[in-house]
Amino acid sequence: METLGLQEILALAFKVPAQPGIYFLIRNGEVVYVGQSAIPMRRLGDHARDKIFDSVAFVPCPLEDVKKVERQYIKQFQPVYNGDEKRRFQIRAKDLPPSSLHRAAASVRPANKRPC
């Protein structure tokens, strides 16, 4: 594969928001998580570890309004990852390959036993 030149890379670049706002994690055209942050790009790395999404959207919002606006969007879209813990696990499990589920189940220990 031939590499891209600087001008081609710059044409693909996009501005990273450096302001507070509401961000949306999207999978297959559906909003799966709504979050708010003073520095949204910092939060995306955290979500990449435990949520499955293929794109992100961002809406700037004054810092004093982010919690209220986030709640409004959660109510509007009812994203699966903003739901209760049982529902979140079911959604994640559905999206993982069977081999991952086997490893996850094998790593669960009863609460009353010590790990080896």
Briefly summarize what is shown.
With 116 residues, this protein is of the alpha+beta class. 44% of the residues lie in helices and 18% in strands. It is globular, with a radius of gyration of 18 Å.
Average predicted confidence as pLDDT: 78
Main sheet record: 3 strands, antiparallel
The CATH level-2 architecture is identified as 3-Layer(aba) Sandwich
Helix content: 40-55%
The H-level CATH homologous superfamily, spelled out, is GIY-YIG endonuclease
> Segments where pLDDT lies below 50 for 5+ residues?
99-116
Number of domains: 1
Q: Count the E strands.
A: 3
CATH fold field value? GIY-YIG endonuclease
Estimate the global geometry from the Cα principal axes.
globular
Key descriptive features of the protein:
single chain; about 120 residues; alpha+beta; GIY-YIG endonuclease; three-stranded antiparallel β-sheet; 5 helices; globular; disordered C terminus
Protein architecture, described:
With 116 residues, the protein is of the alpha+beta class. The protein has one domain (16-105): GIY-YIG endonuclease (3-Layer(aba) Sandwich). 44% of the residues lie in helices and 18% in strands. The chain is built from 5 helices and 3 strands. It has helices at residues 6-12, 40-50, 66-77, 85-95, 98-107, and strands spanning 21-27, 30-37, 55-60. It has a 3-stranded antiparallel sheet with strand order 2-1-3, with helices on one face. Residues 99-116 have low confidence and may be disordered.
